[in-house]
# Entry
Amino acid sequence: MLDPADPAFVRDPYPYYARLRAQGPAARVALVNGTHAWLVTGYETTRAVLADPRFSNVPPQGAGRPRPDSPAQRARACLARHMLNSDAPDHTRLRRLTSAAFAPRRVDALRPRIEELTGGLVQELAARLAEEGSADLVNAFAFPLPVLVIGEVLGVPEADRADLRDWTYRVGSPANALEQGAVDDAWLRLHRYFTELIADKRSSPGDDLFSALVHDAADGGLDDAELLAMAFLLLFAGYETTMNLLASASLLLLTHRRELAAARRTPGGWATVVEEALRHSSPLEGTTWRRTTEEVELAPGTVIPAGASVLAVLAAANRDPAYFPDPDAFRPGRYSSGTEGTRAAPHAAFGHGPHFCVGSRLARMEAEIALPLLFDKLPDLVLTTSPEEIPYRPGLLVRGPRVLPVTIAPRRRCR
Ligand code: HEM
# Structure
């Protein structure tokens, strides 16, 4: 029986996944909500499943989708119609247009703005640490940066960024964490805002990536409903994942000072830190759910029936000892170019196959800018709590610390 909210599992799900992996390429697991699912935990099988069209991304009718009987639920339902919930040929068309908008030259052009945004946040963080003595690195850095960057991607005007940040924070919060109606209200506002944004981009396109998508729509590309779903998908696929990458990588560096020092002095060191953080602490614990369109024999003796729910557990694939020796260790060196053939296998943190992450280049660039800036400006940043006490987000989809309380080591403060 798997309870994704069980505190022991939330804290450290890796021993559980290692046990499943030892049982075979896929294991049928009873979930606490009374359903069953097949969990795929090996590296090779994960990649095979994600590239196999017999594992569909289209959710079964009505499953997991809020019934659209209130304006806020209607707004939420828009999100469910995005390309991550589609198969070829629909997916191929949406993907072609999105990949064009995310062309490397367009993504690379965001670099100066990301540097500027990161610099601003680090400065604010340094001021808060000086004034208040401590801060939460998730709230002050790992959360706002990806939201601001998505603001750039979507071409949200500067004046609206604070609203975007507030609504995103609210829709990403558990319903009982905020006052009554705050989450629904934020959904409605986001829905209204994106609808207007699309109309604005149609009449006066900007240089942003989203304008490229809206503009392509004029040539028979995406219709309004697809654009709306895309805006939501980019916001959620882009911010929560990158937030978890920044938070997990920061935590790893705060608890591995030798690796931090190596990253600071070695050319290309930050890129290896980012790759290893993606592998070691996969920001998406699992992909979105797949469903078998027919019976699939994954390996002799492992047959998944038609219509079964399947989860490729990226966090587990990335710790498969057959591909990553000493998988639980954080060793950025495994991704340095070194001698031919010694580089580790590519991790699966961005998925594999037709749905491979569209934003991988942007996410890597963001982390490779943010981490050095943070640790260069605040080299004596330390945790104020023991790493074992850091709370994690529950569930099987995303994984990352919920808060990271930090301060400046006293040695420096006295200078
Ligand atoms: C560390 C950051 C990120 C991680 C770990 C990540 C991971 C992933 C993974 C694993 C998938 C495939 C999911 C599946 O097969 O079910 C995916 C898809 C996707 N990602 Fe990312 N992502 C990140 C950042 C971003 C960013 C910054 C954007 C855009 C702004 C983005 C946009 C997308 C989109 C649009 C898809 C759907 C692709 C498709 O269906 O063809 N991601 N991402």
Remarks:
- The CA atoms of residues 253 and 261 lie 9 Å apart.
- The chain has a mean pLDDT of 91.
- The first helix runs from residue 7 to 11.
